[in-house]
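Human: For the file, kindly provide a plain-text protein record giving the amino acid sequence and the backbone structure tokens, at your earliest convenience.
Assistant:
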Amino acid sequence: MKAKVFRGGVWLGAGSSIEQLVRFGRNMILARILAPEAFGTMAIVLSATTLINTLTDIGVREAIIQNPRGEEREYISVAYWLSLGRAAALTAMVFAMAPWVARFFSNSDLTALLRVTSLGIVIGGATSPALFVDMKRLKFKYWAILNHGGAICGVLATIGLSLVIRNVWALVLGAVAENAARTILSYVFYPYLPSFTWSRGASRELVGFSKGLIGLSFLNLVFARADIVVLGKLYSPADLGLYTMAVYLVQTPVSFLMNLFGQTLMPTFAHVRSDTVRENRILVQITSLIVVLGIPVIAFLYFCGHSVLGVVYGHRYTAASGALVVAACVALFNLANGQITTIFYARGVPHLHRRAVALMAAIMIALIYPAAKRYGLLGGQVACLVAVFVGFLFQLARIRALTGLELGRYLKIFFVSAAMSLTVPAVYLSSRLWMPLANPAFTIALGVAGCLLAYVLTTAVLLRGKSFS
């Protein structure tokens, strides 16, 4: 199993790395071609379509991977029709609700933008379900190629369109092209001829698993997208564009890690479920990696975030440097929380995670408006941080009751890494004593040096204490 996870991780890691690098390059280019208003408007479009998309999320992929009989053709057939039927219904919903969304945000252009974007939903719903079987078997080679290859096709299409259209339509059409590329590639690598047979037994089992997911995606969306909705209502599309691009700079590497861990660890935990010793060992190891890499980066962005945004996007985006730092903190706890969630899914008890997400969504709803009014763009991420931290603590209590996780061993890495990350401000502040940091590139270089030093020291301390054993 370790060999399968390693091979799958190599393929997913390589594919996701290339995709994220291409997306990063795309954003650097588009930030200099398109106005911030385009990114703000696109953020609203994505939030609205994702809201409707998650209302009826039934977790077909997770149900197939988790089910011992998920490889059988009758299960695959049911999964296909469930996915396609749901996608078609959602496309119709987005098409009908587009004028309402446009009126809410006082932007008539949103009607057409939403309706075109909705085409990507039904196109994505037609993806070949045969790929789920390979994921269940921990074979990720072709999945990585089609998933990340389709994303790269969409990125290239967006860049090409932006040179001609130079407005938000380039982003919308690029997103549709990305879904189309993934669906086409899914049939290239996983040929599948839909069957018109319907197995009641298979549908009962798949839908039975999905009952634990009812409302989960919607609650996740409330937590993840409430900031976009409120900030989009309170502030201009240009301000929202600055905010979303800064946050996306953090989400790019985080998406890479989320996809890598989620796609490899879900089947891994499914194979070792009920073996609490192995579950806890894997959880501690993965969380240690996340924390060791993440906390020094947060320190780096605190001191160098302004320079990073200026170099990557241009000077006007530096106004969102505060949101960038807080977004990094949100990302760290989200990543750590995600690994606990994977165990819940692998054990077939996703309802345990749903309770945590409900709590996070409630906190987000309560805090987002007053935080946005008081702190401006920064308030969006402040509300997210409070919500995700409380949700993380809630899930820690749940996983401890489920697997007997030793909290002392688990939390130790957070304190060790935080202490070692003091090297970042030490390097940064000491350099200011003998040289003004007017050059952004030099400032970034110093921050990177501090991060590398923190990594070396943290690794040395952990190896000495055998924390990875």
Residues 1-214 form one domain. Residues 276-312 form the longest helix (37 residues). The chain has a mean pLDDT of 80. The chain has two domains: 1-214, 234-469.
